[in-house]
Design brief:
Blueprint (H helix, E strand, L loop, with lengths): L1 E4 L7 H14 L4 E4 L6 H9 L2 E4 L1 H4 L7 E4 L6 H10 L2 E4 L3 H17 L8 E5 L5 H8 L6 E3 L14 E5 L5 H16 L7 E3 L5 H4 L1 H10 L3 E5 L5 H13 L3 E4 L4 H5 L7 H9 L8 E6 L5 H13 L2
Parallel strand pairs: 1-12, 2-3, 2-4, 4-5, 6-7, 6-8, 8-9, 10-11, 10-12
Helix pairs in contact: 9-10
The structure holds iron/sulfur cluster.
Iron/sulfur cluster binds next to helix 1, helix 5 and helix 8.
Length: 310
């Protein structure tokens, strides 16, 4: 078996920046993080071992004043800053600059149009409802933005009012374009020709990875995609790998590697071959890759685990 790790996989710039901020602030005393710092349980545990305490919104409301709370790369709605200010909590803002810019754009759009009584605008976010970044984006519109995940949901829009469309940073470009097309088609079928302003605000740190990741997946017989179960980015990138290599398997930790290929009485290589339907005449190429929330050390541990399996 030849095992390799994709050199383009691993933390994006925003997540790396937030983790560096946490590590450096931990040196100055107790530190809380509002929500998981990254959608990867293994990395969260590593930082918790160093003293980072993960809290939720209820905890935020009861923390003593002067507590220090780190805001992760996903960003937060204005209400979080307001609560912190009321309670005398110190915020360490590690919101990714790309997300911050998107929040500012959505807020500017909302402020510019909110008083338009003749044609009240609709701000639409192409994103995953309930995702931390999306909650932060909705907050910029006083929670009036409509969140939709697919063209099948455009019946939730009012086609007599202008539409301002933005995207969660980690959604797929294809999905966004399909949504724009569906909205345009619906508008062209309506008697009111309402305006559509579509802003592709997908982060190229993610979007540009797809082609590289798919090249890597194609070049291997088997792919182990390492990602957190809660990560939206991991789900998108995993699907991109499966599209070009159906022998792609999702694992969250090194312990799951054996389970993926469990087959009684067979060696790991035999089980892999059986599961994948490959012939195995040549050396089997196994590639390990991951999401923007997957730490390199975790992919290395998966590689080490694979190397130990007979
Ligand atoms: S995916 Fe892009 S926008 Fe999101 S945290 Fe990473 S760098 Fe920032």
């Amino acid at each position: 078996m030849q095992i390799s790790i994709d050199e383009h996989s691993g933390f994006c710039f925003g997540v790396t920046r937030a983790i560096k901020a946490a590590e450096s602030e931990l040196a100055n005393g107790p530190l809380y993080c509002l929500g998981d710092i990254v959608h990867n349980g293994q990395e969260v545990s590593r930082l918790e071992m160093k003293g980072l305490a993960t809290i939720d919104y209820d905890d935020l409301r009861t923390l003593p004043s002067h507590s220090r709370v780190l805001l992760r790369a996903h960003g937060e709605p204005p209400s979080t800053y307001w609560i912190a200010q009321q309670r005398g909590i110190e915020i360490i803002d590690a919101t990714c600059p790309v997300v911050k810019k998107l929040q500012d754009r959505i807020r500017a759009c909302y402020e510019a149009h909110k008083n338009d009584e003749a044609q009240p605008p609709q701000i639409v976010i192409y994103g995953q409802p309930g995702h931390a970044e999306v909650i932060g984006l909705q907050g910029q519109t006083n929670n009036t933005a409509i969140v939709i995940e697919s063209p099948a949901q455009i019946d939730r829009l009012d086609f007599t009012r202008p539409i301002y469309l933005f995207s969660q940073t980690t959604k797929s470009v294809e999905g966004f374009n399909a949504l724009v097309e569906a909205i345009q088609l619906q508008i062209s079928n309506c008697k009111f020709q309402v305006a559509l302003e579509a802003h592709d605000t997908i982060c190229r740190n993610v979007a540009n990875r797809v082609a590289e990741l798919q090249d890597f997946a194609r070049a291997n017989d088997i792919v182990l995609f390492v990602g957190g179960k809660k990560s939206s980015n991991a789900r998108v990138l995993y699907k991109n790998c499966v599209e070009v290599n159906p022998n792609t398997f999702f694992v969250s930790s090194p312990d799951e590697v054996e389970k993926v290929f469990q087959s009684e009485g067979r060696s790991f290589s035999e089980a892999v071959l059986q599961r994948s339907g490959l012939s195995g005449e040549a050396g089997l190429k196994v590639g390990i890759c991951g999401a923007t929330s997957t730490p390199l050390w975790l992919m290395q541990k998966v590689r080490d685990k694979l190397s130990l399996i007979p």
